[in-house]
Amino acid sequence: MSGRVPIGVALALLVASGCQSGPEPIRYGQQECAFCRMRIADPRFASELVTAHGKTVVFDALECLIEFAAGDGGAAAAGGTFWVSDFSRPGELIDARGAVFLRSDGVRSPMGLNALAFAAPAALEQARAQYPGTLVTWDELQPLAHALHARRAEQRSAPGASRP
Prior knowledge:
Elements: H1 7-18, E1 47-50, E2 56-59, H2 62-70, H3 74-77, E3 81-85, E4 93-95, E5 100-103, E6 115-118, H4 121-130, E7 134-136, H5 138-157
Antiparallel strand pairs: 1-2, 1-3, 3-4, 5-6, 5-7
């Protein structure tokens, strides 16, 4: 053997090194949300998009991720993966499409949807004993986040609103 790496193997390694399939750690207190521009501070609610090209986009709450993907970030989100914080293990990001969710007014999320994500149904049920609420799916969260965003936009544009 000559010690050379076959071209096919080298190409595969080059491509794989540039494309990440999982999330990167969020730097809490240092990064800002790509949608609302708030500083990401609460590891119970942060979320992340990993684009098909491996770029990471961070958010302070899953509703910001949803709105980003539905709006200007739609092209970046296409083919990407969505990651949300596991409420029972703050800061640990889990695949949003495989997570189970609880909406509870017993906990306030940064943007007000009050949706808690869990990797395991047992962890959700344990939290539900402390924070009564409604079980929802990732697909059911989409229109809820859109409606919340629309209400907030309407409130901001109302005459006499304190924010521009």
